[in-house]
Write a structure and sequence with these properties.
It is a single chain. It is built from four helices and eleven strands; from the N terminus they run E-E-E-E-H-E-E-E-E-H-E-E-E-H-H. By secondary structure, it is α+β, with helices and mostly antiparallel strands. The strands form two sheets. Strands 1, 2, 3, 4, 5, 6, 7, 8 and 9 form a nine-stranded antiparallel beta sheet that branches. The chain has a two-stranded antiparallel ribbon with strand order 10-11.
Length: about 220
């Protein structure tokens, strides 16, 4: 039997649930995506009885291709459960990821906004053309009293801009929780990893989701460069 882990065409389906919103219209949707080493990211979603598909080597390019097919007045809202850590408590909070089409079509651009509900309050970022900027906006508004326990804010996540663009959301992100010595070595020169790229593929867990979390989470205080 062929091992799926070593099959270059293996694909694992993952799903986001949320809403498609346009003016006063709202519809429950499921956004499915798969990743295959030979084809990249493949998206599929049904909106108003129409199926939208897209694929690209980059996560945000494939997502942008879906958004480019939607009205400029619309948005896709994805729901996430995240853990918020304070000095004296842990709590589960709702995080909404708002995705908007960019005004310039076919530009490979996603417009992000994050909305977090915490302590009966709503914290909302501005719109950003990069997930990392939206995440840092949210961190700034949370202040030092709260830590959002998600991969983007974890010290063991390494992002590498190997082939011309990423937005910190998914592709070209690697987790090094299982190889701490290699992590420390890479961080000596991060983000300039020229000549050390092979370690990413050999030791890092690739294609991490910035909003994933695990028990090894360790908060990274500094903004990402």
């Amino acid at each position: 039997m062929k091992s799926l882990e070593k099959d270059p065409n293996s694909q694992v389906a993952r799903r986001h649930v949320g809403y498609f919103i346009n003016d006063g219209y709202r519809e429950v949707i499921q956004v499915e995506y798969r990743y295959g080493r030979s084809v990249g990211f493949m998206f599929r979603v049904n909106i108003q009885n129409k199926e939208y598909k897209s694929e690209s080597a980059k996560y945000f390019d494939a997502l942008s291709n879906i958004l480019d097919q939607l009205p400029l007045t619309s948005a896709i809202v994805l729901f996430h459960k995240v853990i918020i850590v304070s000095e004296d408590s842990h709590m589960i909070s709702d995080l909404e990821e708002w995705l908007y089409p960019y005004s310039v079509r076919d530009s490979g651009t996603v417009v992000y906004k994050l909305r977090l509900y915490i302590d009966q309050k709503r914290i909302e970022t501005q719109k950003h053309l990069d997930f990392g900027n939206a995440a840092e906006d949210l961190r700034t508004q949370l202040g030092p009293s709260y830590k959002l326990q998600a991969c983007y804010f974890c010290k063991y996540l390494i992002e590498y801009n190997e082939f011309g663009g990423t937005d910190y959301r998914h592709d070209q992100t690697y987790c090094f929780r299982d190889h701490l010595e290699d992590y420390e070595f890479l961080m000596l020169s991060y983000p300039n990893l020229y000549g050390k790229e092979s370690l990413l593929g050999l030791k890092g867990i690739p294609n991490m989701d910035a909003l994933h979390s695990c028990s090894s989470f360790t908060y990274r205080v500094e903004p990402r460069p």
